[in-house]
Design brief:
The complex is a heterodimer of chains A (523) and B (431). Chain A is α+β, with helices and mostly antiparallel strands and 523 residues long. Chain A has 15 helices and 20 strands. Classes of the chains: A alpha+beta (523), B alpha+beta (431). Chains A and B meet through helix 6, helix 7, helix 9, helix 11 and strand 16 of A and loops of B.
Chain lengths: 523, 431
């Protein structure tokens, strides 16, 4: 009797121990959040985490397709009016009901967050007026036809209107962190951890894990070591050089997915003088990158296959446009530019630079997979066709501010950057990176090369106002073709992301590169 | 004034009588050579300096020249070789099956063969032609990818080799080409052109990567030689200037005393109360990157050590009689400081300088390891170590380990020399 009882107790203990372990998860990510305020900074590092605490009108699934979120039904009721029906019975973490008022409050807060390094206002700029029909019905009047409204709204987190004056600091401290998402805010210690706990009353059901701990570990080697040591359960950004070794490790599960992020070069194509371009003797010259043939020559001089094979160790896809195959609005007529150093030299000679010139390529050293190595590889390739290229890389905290620059444009001439399409279709990079810069409409905000082309702008505008999906896809593809023909930017490759999980778990890759516990499944 | 001069000489005279003068340099050298460890250190250090100075002459590659390094050769293990692009060529074999004929094909100079003789003869009564292709000299010695024979006329086949399962070319052996038959199920009545693709498996070895290559295809051995050059130059130059500044300020503080001393020495205290690496990091964040900026940062963080040492030595020296004598002569202050005080302060400063050179090299390596300071295309030892760090887990140890060993040896050698110098120059330890 006694013996069987103790065995039973032991067995119960085992089961409880096992479940308790399975319900907590520690995730190591490469980059830290800049704030816990969901409207402060539009960057993947923040969005992946605040998107767990807060909810959105519409969700994007792992492939960035739209799904119902707080809104259950939506659609245009006129050319420039959209109606959204809200899910009833959704409660914030403090127990109050989420109503249309909170949604209006959130969208109105977005453009008014002070000191935002990259605002979500691009996604609300097209809204002229929001009308609350009743507690669970909203109507959006837009400036002209606006087919992208649902996608744009899917990027903005809904906060509680109970804290109308909450500042970014209040969100960081947690006093204002009242959301309605699957996880609740517990604590945020900069540089150390973000702790979340399950919201058992979430409308889609209680989430899989009780506690989620995010730990920023910026060193690739340290992150992998943490996974190998069992300190963390999931890591993002497995370095390409370690993939082969980890694949042979039975305790580690790897998963890979193509991302929506293109790595490309912004080319200073408008200014008469460019800060980092000189002739071979170091004297200032007229900016050769104004000439489309020189830009084309640079593109031809880049051996994308070798970058993918050698620098990325095969874990990337050579790129000829701004989104990989399969995404909405991608052109089927664009091939990856062929590596042709002789052709590049000939084009340079034709453009009046038979002996080339000197330039400096700038890039970050802690943002994209192997970013510093890519910049060096490109410098090597350009030097071979006669453009003597120096490399300067810096931490992203310094880099992006300087790359975007002030009113005079970028501080650099040729810069390595990446862009992930937040909307999962081609208009996001085209709007931000290639449209003529226009501060009023928010278009071209990230056009660091100041590429400007009337036919491109017109085609893109037309696309943005076209409600019919097939038509819009065709117009976006057309706009992409124009920009690529004029070499508005030089794409090199699409990132392929690798996640590592401990044995027993598997990560479902997301095209938006987010690392979220909601994508972790038992193996 | 002149009446004091004879007195000074009269002090020196009995000393000259007492012992045979041994120049101090000789005595120091003799003492130094007594320690075999220090001699070893000196030998290694001299070798390292020679390598660093003559790196552009002896390094197999200029690792800073982007057109010389090849991405295709990245992450090669030690001992692997750099190859030329393999020889490849497409031969057009024009054949008229109606008549017998021969053609001579000559190759370009870089090819391993000089010429080839193509001859063919129709086989009477059949739609077939016998073909022979002979290379001079023969292709036997050259290692080749399987030869591909393409563009056969429709409906024809060869009696040698094998056709690809779904593509149009035939894979053949070089030896079989001397005599083979092309037969067709259709009439062979018009001239055709076969295409023979020849590709060597590998090119000629250009150089050996004795220590492997890094992630950009840079020869590690050359990169280490050039890296040593940068490291030593940064260490020596920054130490020299730091010594100049520190020594002058230290002696001025000791000589004048009072308020000047207080001001200088409090600045020194302030500077020394911050960790060196922190100050250097902040400076580089403000100054930006580049070799000269790193040197400037290192000078700023190092002068205080020299100033403190110089002051303490000068304080002792200031009380000695020869200083009083010099002052009694009413020599100018700068002359007293630099001609009388300075030479007597030098021995301990030399010791500090040697140790500081090693420290400066280590500090420069630390800064580059943290990714600030020098440009990525011109790696110093620290940057090489840092670049290789990310490859450690994947087993490519050579990118990090060899520059690390080079750095270690350099610093140990300098310290061995410095230690011995301290012993030799310290009067208290003199037997």
């Amino acid at each position: 009797m006694w013996r069987s009882l103790s065995t039973a107790t032991f067995a119960v203990g085992m089961v409880m121990g096992a479940t308790a372990h399975a319900e907590d998860i520690t995730i190591a990510v490469a980059s830290e959040v800049t704030a816990m305020d969901p409207h402060y900074h539009n960057t993947g590092n923040n969005n992946q985490i605040v998107g767990l605490i807060y909810d959105r009108m519409l969700h994007q699934d792992s492939n960035q397709q739209l799904e119902p979120g707080l809104a259950v039904e939506w659609g245009p009721i006129a050319d420039d009016v959209w109606e959204f029906k809200l899910r009833e019975g959704v409660k914030f973490h403090d127990g109050t009901d989420l109503t249309a008022e909170d949604i209006v409050f959130s969208y109105e807060r977005v453009p008014n967050v002070p000191n935002s390094p990259s605002s979500f206002a691009t996604y609300t700029a097209g809204i002229a007026e929001i009308t609350v029909v009743d507690d669970y019905t909203l109507q959006f009047r837009t400036n002209g036809p606006y087919p992208l409204l649902p996608i744009d709204l899917s990027t903005i987190q809904i906060v509680s209107s109970e804290n109308p004056d909450a500042t970014t600091e209040d969100y960081n401290a947690g006093t204002a962190s009242i959301g309605s998402g699957p996880y609740k805010f517990v604590s945020y210690t900069p540089g150390e951890s973000i702790v979340l706990e399950a919201n058992p009353d979430y409308w889609a059901g209680a989430p899989q894990f009780d506690t989620v701990i995010y730990r920023p570990i910026s060193s690739d080697a340290a992150r992998v070591a943490a996974l190998l040591a069992g300190d963390v359960d999931v890591i993002s950004g497995v370095p390409t050089s370690d993939i082969a070794t980890l694949e042979g490790n039975p305790d580690i599960v790897l998963s890979q997915g193509v991302s929506n992020r293109v790595i490309y070069l912004h080319v200073d194509s408008r200014r008469v003088y460019s800060p980092f371009i000189t002739d071979n003797d170091g004297n200032q010259i007229f900016n050769p990158l104004q000439d489309v043939n020189v830009r084309k020559a640079i593109s031809m001089a880049i051996d994308r296959d070798t970058i993918v094979e050698e620098v990325m160790e095969g874990v990337a896809i050579p790129a000829g446009q701004v989104l990989p195959e399969g995404f909405f609005g991608v052109s089927e007529n664009i091939d990856v530019p062929e590596y042709d150093p002789e052709g590049a030299k000939a084009l340079l000679a034709e453009a009046g630079y038979p002996d080339g010139f000197k330039l400096t390529i700038h890039g970050p050293n802690d943002r994209y997979i192997n970013d510093e190595q890519i910049a060096q590889a490109i410098a090597q390739m350009l030097t071979r066709v006669g453009i003597e290229t120096a490399v300067e890389t810096m931490p992203r905290s310094v880099y992006f501010g300087r790359a975007t620059g002030g009113d005079d444009g970028s501080e650099f001439s040729l810069m390595l950057v990446g862009w992930g399409s937040g909307t999962g279709e081609a208009s996001s990079p085209l709007r931000a990176l290639l449209h003529t810069r226009d501060d009023d409409s928010g278009l071209g905000r990230t056009n660091r090369g100041r590429y400007s082309s009337a036919p491109f702008d017109a085609t893109l505008q037309l696309a943005l106002n076209t409600v019919d999906d097939d038509m819009r896809a065709a117009l976006l593809a057309r706009a992409t073709e124009i920009a690529m023909r004029e070499v508005g930017l030089i794409p090199t490759h699409f990132q392929v992301n690798t996640w590592g999980t401990r044995k027993g778990l598997r990560y479902i890759p997301r095209t938006d590169e987010y690392t979220r516990p909601t994508n972790v499944v038992p193996e | 004034m002149s009446s004091i001069d004879p007195a000074a000489e009269s002090v020196a005279l009995p000393e000259q009588k007492a012992a045979k003068p041994v120049p101090p340099a000789v005595r120091i050298a003799k003492d130094f050579l007594e320690s075999s460890l220090a001699v070893l250190g000196l030998a290694i250090l001299s070798l390292i300096i020679l390598v660093a100075v003559f790196a552009p002459l002896i390094a197999p590659q200029n690792p800073y020249d982007l057109s010389e390094i090849r991405l295709e050769d990245s992450r090669q293990p030690p001992g692997s070789q750099r190859m030329t692009a393999p020889w490849e060529t497409d031969l057009e074999l024009a054949i008229d099956p109606g008549i017998e004929g021969t053609t001579e094909i000559t190759f370009s100079e870089d090819a391993p063969v000089e010429s080839a003789a193509l001859s063919w003869a129709p086989i009477s009564g059949e739609d077939a032609v016998s073909i022979s292709l002979e290379f001079t000299p023969s292709l036997e010695g050259v290692s080749l990818e399987p030869l591909r024979l393409d563009d056969l006329p429709r409906g024809s086949e060869l009696n040698i080799g094998e056709k690809h399962s779904f593509r149009s070319f035939w894979t053949v052996k070089a030896a079989d080409l001397q005599n083979f038959t092309l037969s067709s199920s259709r009439a062979l009545d018009r001239p055709f052109e076969l295409e023979l693709a020849i590709k060597a498996t590998e090119g000629e070895a250009l150089m050996t990567y004795w220590l492997g290559t890094d992630g950009q295809g840079r020869d590690m051995l050359s990169a280490i030689m050039y890296g040593l050059r940068t490291s030593l130059a940064v260490g020596v130059v920054s130490c020299f200037f730091a010594m100049m500044i520190g020594l002058s300020l230290g002696m001025i503080a000791a000589f004048f005393g009072g308020r000047i001393e207080t001001v200088i020495m409090r600045i020194v205290d302030l500077q020394l109360s911050f960790p060196t690496i922190l100050v250097a990091l902040m400076l580089l964040a403000i100054l930006g990157s580049g070799v000269e900026k790193v040197m400037l940062a290192l000078i700023i963080v190092q002068w205080a050590y020299f100033a403190r040492t110089a002051r303490s030595v000068a304080l002792v020296e200031r009380g000695k009689e020869y200083m009083e004598a010099a002052q009694c002569l009413a020599l100018s202050k700068s002359r007293v400081i630099f001609r009388h005080l300075l030479p007597n302060c030098l021995p301990p400063i030399i010791v500090v300088a040697t140790v500081q050179v090693a420290n400066a090299i280590a500090l420069e390596a630390t800064l580059s390891f943290l990714g600030i300071g020098l440009p990525v295309t011109e790696p110093s030892l620290g940057l090489l170590i840092s670049n290789g760090f990310e490859f450690m887990l994947s087993g490519r140890y050579w990118i990090s380990v060899y520059p690390g060993v080079a750095l270690l040896i350099t610093i140990i050698a300098i310290n061995l020399v410095g230690d011995r110098l301290r012993d030799v120059l310290n009067p208290r330890l003199n037997r």
